[in-house]
Design brief:
A five-stranded parallel β-sheet has the order 3-2-1-4-5, sandwiched between helices. It has one domain: Rossmann fold (3-Layer(aba) Sandwich), CATH 3.40.50.720. By secondary structure, the chain is α/β, with parallel strands linked by helices. It contains five helices and five strands; from the N terminus they run αβαβαβαβαβ. The longest helix has 13 residues. Strand 4, helix 5 and strand 5 form a beta-alpha-beta unit.
Amino acid sequence: MTADTNWLKQAPNKPLFEDILWSRPQNKRQAGKLLIIGGSVHGFSAPAGAYGAAEKAGIGSIRVILPDATKRMLGKLFLEAEFAPSTTSGSFSRQALAQLLDTADWTDGVLLAGDFGRNSETAILLEAFVKKYRGPLSITHDGIDYF
């Protein structure tokens, strides 16, 4: 049986892609575009933390998409956030797929940051997104549980 080379696991004491550190662009416009997807009405610290880490790392442009159920709580606090359709339980709904894919076309990579909650409709959405998205994709926190 051969090893699966499609998955990489980051060790806590070193970067996942060490060669990127020395070749980081000096100009913010050339530093890449990242889409962060995550959160639910019950938790949004993972996408917020990912946004802060991406800013600190020097990503050129960052967009964050959260379920619209979080807009009342975060709309004025997290001005960078965009909001996609959510279920009645506050997680992403299947209707968010088109928005996620459209925004993903803009990026150089996508981070499924986590805090998605435990919702079957969100699971269907994430599976459909991963099947259709063709760029670099990283999955963290409870996002990996869906796969």
